[in-house]
Amino acid sequence: MFTSLQTPQFAMSALLVVALLAYFTVKWYLSSRQIQHIFAHRTQVPAAFSHQISLDEHQNAADYALAKLQMARKELCVDVFLVLFWSLGGGFSLLIKYSLMLSQDPLYFGLILMVLFSLLNGMLNLPLEYLSLFRVERKFGFNKMSKKLWLSDLLTSTVLSLVVGVPLLYAILLFIQQQPDFWWFWAWALFVGLNILMLWLYPTVIAPLFNQFKPLESGKLKIRLNQLLKRCGFKSSGMFVMDGSRRSAHGNAYFTGFGANKRIVFFDTLLTQLNDVQIEAVLAHELGHFHHKHILKRLALVLPVSLLVFMLLGFLSKQAWFYLGLVGSDEPDLLALLLVTPEHFVATCLALFGLILPIFSFFITPLMAQASRRDEFEADAFAVQNSNGQDLIDALVRMYQENARFVETDALYSRFYDSHPPAMIRIAQIQHIMQSTP
Fold first, then answer.
1. Exposed, middle or buried: residue 397 (CB in 10 Å: 0-12, 13-18, 19+)?
2. Which residues pair with residue 266 across a beta bridge?
3. Which of 92, 144, 15 shows the shortest CA–CA distance to 347?
4. 245 φ, ψ to 5°?
């Protein structure tokens, strides 16, 4: 069942080192390009934004972007260190030994190992998350959270992850035990079903755990928006205002859920930043995503891709060289103990796969970002057709201004990191649609 060839083992170790080096180098290089780009364009506001954004606001946005880039570099160093620590550094071997001490039952061992790994890895990342919120975001006036609220959110999200994740992991481990050759397929089916369920439950069950949602008050704005919904043929369970200002000064709007459980959500900060016609244009953009079925299309793409990922995981979980290449071969007794019960070994490989997947998946982010930007262009076009293009432009510029978004972006950096089109390109495209629309 298992292979332990020396060459594949060393190849796996070498692949990890090369991937980590490439991951670090590419991300550092991209951030360097963006930093240079910001310095080159911070002294003058682009013409498309000069009527609303002052030079002081433009330079403040540049400083904010630079601060976030410097924090991202720290996070990058920590990410690479943690991967090396858990894998070749021996951290995972220690965690396996401790988990085996707590239980050698295949099901409980796998649960203990993966829960401990997730909790410890999360805790090791907490200091930088704290600095990002309470130093960078607060310095620029965006973080409105108290430390108490931050800890409360952290506890709630941890409990929620355990409530959802532990039964999911237990079911997957049962599949491994009952269907050793095709467990990955049933795990994939469960994963897909759970994600669809969570998408349906998110608006009414999950989101209210963190924020308060109140129906949009009656008035001219609600009448205007209801007319837009009627024109677009959109039916939802209502329009709601979220107390986003409790946590951040950033503003946004979105619709979530599907079927009869759809709802439209506005951040309370957004409603104070934009006027009625601009809010209508923003909502028209969000309805464009619904009209073009972007969520369903994204789901249709995720299904086969995630199936391939689970299939790969099913293959790797039977290869001793995968484990040895990541954890090391200096403790043959530990490997022998894991191989006594295949479920032990598969659970270990499952956790290791989760550790390295973000490193390798980073290199396909330009493809995913490109698809996302295409969706944004389509939603913008829909908004121009069903509201007012100039109102949409004014709303976007106002949001860039209020959120201190630096409107100049290096093209290569943008391909990796921007799920939305760069500001200059996006506004130019909206203007082109306006000119070509009768």
1. buried
2. 241, 253
3. 92
4. -65, -15
Q: Which of 137, 280, 286, 375 is catalytic?
A: 286
Mean pLDDT of 394-411: 87
Using alpha carbons, select from 426, 377, 358 the residue that is nearest to residue 27. Answer: 358
Tokens of 389: 């293009």
Contact 113, 96 (CB under 8 A): yes
Gap between the Cα atoms of 204 and 211, Å rounded: 11
Question: Rounded to whole angstroms, how far apart are CA atoms 292 and 205?
Answer: 26
Distance in angstroms (rounded) separating the CA atoms of residues 99 and 177: 18
The H-assigned helical ranges of 233-364 are 268-273, 276-291, 294-316, 320-327, 332-340, 342-361
- Residue 380 designated active-site: yes
Residue 181's φ and ψ, nearest 5 degrees, are: -95, -30
Query: What is the model's pLDDT at position 3?
Result: 44
For tokens 């953009």, the residue is 285
pLDDT tens-place string over residues 31-84: 999 999 999 999 998 887 888 888 998 999 999 999 999 999 999 999 999 999
Asked if 391 is an active-site residue, the reply is: no
* Alpha helices, DSSP H, located in 362-410: 365-386, 389-402
Q: Name, in order, each residue with C-beta under 8 angstroms of 246's C-beta and a sequence gap of 6 or more.
A: 144, 145, 149, 211
CB 402 within 8 A of CB 273: yes
Q: 194 vs 62, 118, 341, CA distance in Å?
A: 41, 19, 28
Among 137, 375, 380, 402, the active-site one is 380
pLDDT band at 258 (very low <50, low <70, confident <90, very high): low
- 154 to 178, 246, 288, 396, 397: CA distances (angstroms): 35, 15, 33, 31, 33
Q: Would you tell me how many other CB atoms lie within 10 Å of the CB of residue 330?
A: 9
pTM (predicted TM-score): 0.87
